[in-house]
Design a protein that fits this description.
Layout: E1 5-8, H1 14-25, E2 29-32, H2 37-45, H3 58-72, E3 78-81, H4 96-124, E4 127-132, H5 145-164, E5 170-177, H6 184-195, H7 204-216, H8 229-240, E6 247-250, H9 252-263, H10 266-274
Parallel strand pairs: 1-2, 1-3, 3-4, 4-5, 5-6
Length: 276
């Protein structure tokens, strides 16, 4: 059988890195894309083909995908959109330009790459586009307005694309992890420091009592946190099943919140989430 190929973004650490290792072990030809060239070089040292793709830079999206298609002879069996970042902070303290920035990286860049690969998959007669969302793609959480809104938008785009692709041989899938071991919290600190003027916020005391401790002091695991391989297992099922599910939950909190969202009135769920 011809070796199947997949493009995975955000492979420098966490979910993307584990997915690249897991898919390679399963026999796939993995193109492990990273945002920074230094991380691409590290992945190449590990034996991966690693184009540079930065979702906030359209040129790297176009050139990175072209590099992949040149290597495969113009085909690609699957794509796992994964790279994302967070900007912690209260919504009232979030500058609009910060929101533009996170949507560029977490939504618009994903859309651009997806639009560019769809014609390739249409022409070859098959393909799977799998988007890594979050439990925060369907329930909110304090301090996470920027990230939550970007994931809500991603889920809406993905749901519509799945419906629109029903008349094609393409499968469109969402993966929705809860707490998974990654560097997203640490990586969010520079974004927080760039955009959030918390000292002049009416919530300054709340920042000190809550968010700052979580960002700068808390290095422990979240409750029910799973290693990235939990996502890779669901990704493998989405890639190999003849009838992949539209959504894959990962971690207990995702299953729990999915059930509570169906069962609880909005205000009751708000109260529960606010309690932490």
């Amino acid at each position: 059988m011809t070796q199947k190929s997949i493009l995975i973004t955000g492979c420098s650490s966490g979910i993307g890195y584990d997915a690249a290792l897991g898919l390679q072990k399963a026999g796939w030809r993995v193109f492990a894309a990273c945002r920074q060239q230094a991380d691409c070089d590290k992945m190449k040292d590990l034996g991966f083909e690693s184009p540079r793709i930065d979702y906030q830079d359209t040129q790297t999206i176009t050139e990175g995908l072209a590099e992949v298609l040149s290597a495969t002879g113009g085909t690609l069996d699957a794509m796992f959109n994964n790279g994302a970042f967070a900007i912690p902070g209260a919504v009232e303290d979030l500058p609009t330009d910060a929101l533009r920035s996170i949507f560029e990286g977490n939504v618009f860049g994903w859309h651009e790459l997806t639009r560019q690969i769809i014609p390739v998959m249409r022409a070859q007669g098959h393909g799977r586009i799998i988007n890594n969302s979050s439990v925060l793609g369907f329930v909110p959480a304090r301090w996470r307005g920027a990230y939550v809104s970007s994931k809500y938008a991603l889920e809406g785009l993905t749901d519509v694309l799945r419906i629109e692709m029903r008349d094609t041989p393409l499968h469109i899938v969402l993966i929705e992890p809860g707490p998974v071991t990654s560097k997203i919290r640490v990586n969010s600190i520079p974004h927080f420091e760039r955009w959030i003027d918390w000292k002049n916020s009416p919530r300054a005391a709340q920042y000190e009592d809550s968010l700052l401790k979580r960002l700068y002091e808390d290095r422990g695991k979240d409750a029910f946190e799973l290693p990235p391989v939990a996502v890779t297992k669901k990704l493998l099922h989405a890639l190999t099943s003849s009838t992949p599910r539209p959504r894959y939950y990962v971690t207990t909190p995702t299953y729990l919140m999915g059930a509570l969202r169906r069962l609880f009135p909005t205000r009751a769920l708000d109260w529960l989430i606010a309690k932490g």
